[in-house]
Amino acid sequence: MVCNARWALVLGAILVTVSGCSAEQEAGHGAVRTPAPEPEPQLIHPAFDFVEADLASMLDGMPQDIAGTIREDPHGFLSQVLLVLDEPDDLTILVDKDHPLSDGYRPTDLVDLDALSDELVLSRPGHRLRRGATDALLEMSASALGEGITLMVSSAYRSYEYQQTVYARWVEELGAAMADRVSARPGMSQHQLGTAVDFGCICRAFADQPAGRWLRANAHRYGYSLSYPEGYEEVTGYLYEPWHYRYIGRAAAVLEREYFSGLQHYLLTFLHAHRSFLIVSRR
Ligand SMILES: [Zn+2]
Fold first, then answer.
1. DSSP per residue, 217-253
2. E strand map for 71-130
3. Domain annotation covers residue 254
4. Number of domain units in the chain
5. What is the CA(17)–ligand 1 centre distance, in A?
6. Ligand 1 mean position to 190 CA, how many Å?
7. Co-location of 5 and 136 in the same domain
8. Residue of 252, 147, 158 lying closest to 198 (CA atoms)
9. Which of 119, 158, 178, 196 would be 246's cystine partner, CB 3.0–4.6 Å?
10. How far is the CA of 212 from the centre of ligand 1 (A)?
11. Cα separation of 82 and 128, whole Å?
């Protein structure tokens, strides 16, 4: 033995060695000591230059269940985030009561839906929608129709000025406090993005109508997302609007559904807070 050891007789016959040898004691006999290298922090995804602790801090403030889902599968999560980052930013830009668009924001690729009235059901003439959202709407409407469901477009793009008149009308009818629960002030409406669509009756009963039920089950397949779900007024700022969908793109719709409990607001809040960091962290 080259180090301290204790010998003991057990039951008078069995020798038991209780070794006190440790690496330090071994090294004390002339070996050159080099401190064990710190383990390299592991990247959680080869496409991003950050580690698990960075992702954990990005998830601060997220509801526990959402943060937990993401932490269980960080690689899958970031693979889907990559696809979203490759899409135009304005598909997933956060627009709400705290994050208004400028009055000058106006999409440049609006499509006049009247030209597509053979394929779409429109509540009135004059609806316009951005190109990508229109293509997805055409595909979604055709699929719904194949199942006997008619999706009627009741509202689409609204300019800042038009939203001024919509909001003023609600204030006149309900007073400002209630108007703010059901209508966006100018600049705070997703309709100004040109990617939001109101379907059907624009009424609470839409939730239980065939078109409302079909959209809730299928819209995500086409990149559309329910913006103001039931029970989330505290989070979104608006009462349940079963008729209001926003086109966020298919990649974001998958991300929302698989990692953000299907809640658009949390997905958009996450991207709003961390998009720049995610972009500069790409390898
Ligand atoms: Zn709407």
1. HHGGGGTEEESS-TT-HHHHSS---TTEEEE--HHHH
2. 110-112, 121-122, 128-130
3. yes
4. 2
5. 78
6. 7
7. no
8. 158
9. 196
10. 14
11. 30
Ligand 1 centroid – CA 156 distance (Å): 8
Alpha-carbon distance of 181 to 175, in angstroms, equals 11
Q: Calculate how far, in angstroms, residue 184's C-alpha sits from the geometric centre of ligand 1.
A: 9
CA of 142 relative to ligand 1 center, distance in Å: 21
Say yes or no: 194 and 82 in one domain: yes
C-alpha–C-alpha distance, residues 81 and 252, integer Å: 8
Bridge partners for 129 per DSSP = 111
Same-domain pairing of 197 and 152: yes
Rounded to two decimals, what is the model's pTM? 0.84
Domain residues for 16? 1-37
Instruction: Assess if residue 42 is contained within a domain.
Output: no
Query: Rounded to the nearest whole angstrom, what is the distance from the C-alpha of residue 198 to the centroid of ligand 1?
Result: 5
Residue 196 alpha carbon to ligand 1 centre in Å: 7
Q: 146 CB contacts (<8 Å, ≥6 apart)?
A: none
How far away, in angstroms, is 279 Cα from ligand 1 center? 31
Bridge partners for 6 per DSSP: 18
List pLDDT tens digits, range 222-266: 999 999 999 999 999 999 999 999 999 999 999 999 999 999 999
Mean per-residue pLDDT of the chain: 89
Query: Using an 8 Å Cβ cutoff, are 140 and 224 in contact?
Result: yes
Predicted confidence band at 36 (pLDDT cuts at 50, 70, 90)? confident
- The domain that contains 88 carries what CATH number? 3.30.1380.10
